[in-house]
From TrEMBL:
Source domain of life: Bacteria
InterPro entries the record matches: 6-hairpin_glycosidase_sf (IPR008928), 6hp_glycosidase-like_sf (IPR012341), Bac_rhamnosid6H (IPR035396), Bac_rhamnosid_C (IPR035398)
Pfam families listed in its UniProt record: Bac_rhamnosid6H, Bac_rhamnosid_C
Signal peptide annotation: 1-20
UniProt domain Alpha-L-rhamnosidase six-hairpin glycosidase: residue ranges: 197-388
UniProt KW keywords: Signal
Name of protein: Alpha-L-rhamnosidase C-terminal domain-containing protein
Protein's organism: Mucilaginibacter litoreus
Length: 584
């Protein structure tokens, strides 16, 4: 026994020495980065389309729907076989059931002559995108992520391909007289494996699904950085992040990917430049810093922003003329794409947004002990309120004017409520909902959520889109089917500006606004003091009979349940962790 124990100790010591020599990257203090994301494998849920299966070009495609193992073997059983001729190349389109971020894992059997077999792989957020060509007709591209490519698959092996956003994958043989034996094709979901600490459940199943879809859309975009979209734009657009960071606060709580992304935007934008060349995006950076500090209470992180924040606020405070009008310059004057041609609306929106920015900046400056900057910000914000621009019919501008205190809430609500959800937008829809809440029109906001975000779900969406227009709906097909004759293709036939046709992202985090809105206004949870040490809970159920859910704070989970009684009053059960004061 002693000899055996000594031998075991010797073997272990040798193993440790070998690891130390052959894996120096993992020694303490070495420069390497661990991926914070995890990988999950998903089998296809259905076969959407194949070429002719009666001629022997595709045999047993249903075998691809079986649960895979990720391992090639010598059994030769349960294969899907594709055979090409000189005149015909077989193809198959798989549906993985929901939009994901990642690629596919293809496991093969033995091929003729032991040679690799070339295939063309096309990813799609819709069926039509997966069936498309890279051309100028429908807008299909490989921008930001390769979604259309030719690769060689190994003999009796496995290949993992792709890093994009998709739900559908099409595989075609490329060469004449080729044969491919597929054991399995699985999607690889690459995502942060983090819990959904926040939740929402009510008497309206559509609202419940919308809340979760917004949460999942943002979760997909929490990759190495916080992106707009998992197909495109796979970039940090800090102005677009505010609905996302609001969703993260309501669902996941404090996440380092937020700070990492805010810092990246700051570090690549030397003062006095504006982030992404847009003055509004630098203002959104200030607003996000304010809201994130309120939720996390992370003073150490806020202190790291002081130098940059002070200079930026000083610069913004100078952008006012003698008529108390904003004169923001130095880049693209931008609210969102649908309002980008309405110059009067842009001025009105920026006027309101500059007030919000300077008010938030004044608060942060006081927290940081910079009373001089705080005073300047408040003085300029007060001056800006003396100039009342024309919103020129813009719902985006009306929302910003209301939230900035420039427009009576009920007047803004009239503009936003005109023709229902016509002229809504997925990004600024969040602020339209916030303005409706400020006017006390909670039921109107609930209706708008269902009437605007709901149709995307009805068309097969599992994530929310870069843009959506209610006027697109007549005669359109679902995104999870081949477009029937006489129907419009809602993905390929619509879109504008940078999202024309199939370039349009169908998983865009800025469209998640209903998720934090439902948490804040239906559950009624609003942060009053930094670190969620004080929260108010004032529910607004509208026509709901009940609503319940949870909200993550740095001190623990807050849970609420609100039930409407026969007389219309609301009975609430609230549980808050120690250290969280609840105001009702």
């Amino acid at each position: 026994m002693i000899k055996r124990s000594l031998l075991l100790l010797f073997v272990l010591s040798v193993f440790k020495a070998v690891v130390a020599q052959t894996s120096p990257a993992f020694e303490k203090g070495k420069d390497y980065e661990k991926d914070e994301r995890q990988r999950f494998y998903l089998s296809p849920t259905r076969i959407v389309w194949t070429t002719d299966t009666t001629s022997g070009a595709i045999i047993n495609p249903e075998n691809l729907l079986k649960k895979g193992t990720g391992q090639a073997d010598l059994s030769g059983a349960h294969l899907c076989v594709l055979r090409s001729a000189s005149s015909k190349k077989p193809g198959i389109l798989l549906d993985f059931g929901k939009e994901i971020h990642g690629g596919i894992s293809v496991v093969t059997d033995q091929s003729k002559g032991g040679k690799p077999v070339r295939v063309r792989i096309r990813f799609g957020e819709s069926v039509s995108e997966a069936m498309s060509e890279i051309d100028t007709l429908k807008g299909a591209t490989n921008d930001h992520a390769m979604r259309d490519m030719v690769v060689a698959l190994p003999w009796l092996g496995k290949l993992e391909i792709g890093e994009s956003g998709f739900r559908f994958a099409r595989i075609d043989l490329v060469d004449d007289n080729a044969e491919l034996k597929l054991k399995e094709v699985r999607a690889i979901l690459v995502i942060r494996d983090i819990p959904y600490l926040g939740s929402f459940h009510s008497s309206d199943t559509l609202l419940n699904k919308i809340w979760m879809t917004g949460a999942y859309t943002v979760h997909l975009n929490m990759q190495s950085y916080l992106w707009d979209g998992v197909k495109r734009d796979r970039l940090v657009w800090v102005g677009d992040m505010h609905p996302e960071t609001s969703t993260i606060a309501a669902v996941f709580g404090d996440q380092q990917v937020v700070q990492k992304s805010l810092d990246q935007a700051r570090d690549i934008t030397p003062y006095p430049q504006y982030m992404a060349g847009m003055v509004s995006y630098s203002m959104w950076w200030v607003i996000i810093q304010h809201d994130w500090y309120m939720h996390t209470g992370n003073l150490n992180y806020l202190k790291q922003q002081k130098s940059y924040l002070t200079k930026l606020l000083d610069q913004l405070a100078g952008k006012i003329d003698t008529n108390n009008s904003e004169i923001l310059d130095g880049g693209n004057r931008f609210l969102d794409w649908p309002s980008s041609t309405n110059t009067k609306a842009i001025h009105a929106g920026l006027q309101g947004m500059l007030i919000i920015t300077l008010t938030d900046g004044a608060y942060l400056s006081e927290v940081l002990g910079d009373n001089a900057t705080a005073k300047k910000c408040r003085e300029v914000a007060a001056r800006l309120k003396k100039h009342i621009p024309d919103v020129n019919g813009s719902k985006q501008a009306a929302a910003m004017m209301s939230l900035g205190g420039l427009m009576p809430p009920k007047e803004a609500d009239k503009v936003i409520s005109d023709r229902g959800v016509h002229n809504y937008s997925t990004y600024y829809g969040y602020y339209m909902l916030q303005a409706k809440a400020k006017a006390g029109n909670y039921q109107g906001a609930l209706n708008d959520i269902k009437n605007y975000w709901g149709p995307m779900l009805a068309l097969g969406a599992t994530t929310f889109w870069e843009d959506f227009d209610i006027d697109w709906l007549p005669g359109v097909s679902r995104i999870d089917e081949l477009v029937p004759p006489g129907k419009k293709d809602i993905h390929a036939d619509y879109g504008a500006y940078c999202y024309k046709g199939l370039r349009h992202s169908l998983a865009h985090g800025w469209a998640s606004g209903p998720t934090p809105w439902l948490t804040e206004h239906v559950l009624g949870i609003k942060v009053i003091a930094p670190g969620c040490k004080v929260i108010s809970i004032k529910p607004h159920l509208g026509d709901l009979t009940f609503a319940e859910g949870t909200f993550p704070t740095p001190l623990g989970i807050v849970s609420v349940r609100h039930t409407k009684k026969a007389d219309g009053t609301i009975a609430s059960v609230i549980k808050a962790p120690p250290g969280v004061k609840v105001i009702r």
